[in-house]
Amino acid sequence: MCLAIPGKIEDILNALPMERTGTVSFGGIRKEINLAFVPEADPGDYVIVHAGFAISKINATEARRIFDLLACDETDAPC
């Protein structure tokens, strides 16, 4: 089973097209992520990340919905 989670791009570290990387925040945990597959994504945008690669851009509403679902799973509370 594969899992991809949303994160918010904080800044771009390398803008070269095939080496594009940036700092992405996952609820306060920051990681350097490859952004080559989402050239349209900019700081402030949300992306879905799998295995260190951003694979698509999503809107803030969808990102919040996913965060809420993950929070429900952590507490075993009904959602």
From TrEMBL:
SUPFAM superfamilies: HupF/HypC-like. Transmembrane segments: none annotated. It comes from the Bacteria. GO terms for biological process: protein maturation. GO terms for molecular function: carbon dioxide binding; iron ion binding. Pfam families: HupF_HypC (PF01455). InterPro entries: Hydgase_assmbl_chp_CS (IPR019812), Hydrogenase_HupF/HypC (IPR001109). Belongs to the HupF/HypC family. NCBIfam families: hypC_hupF (TIGR00074). This is Hydrogenase expression/formation protein HypC. It comes from Neptunomonas antarctica.
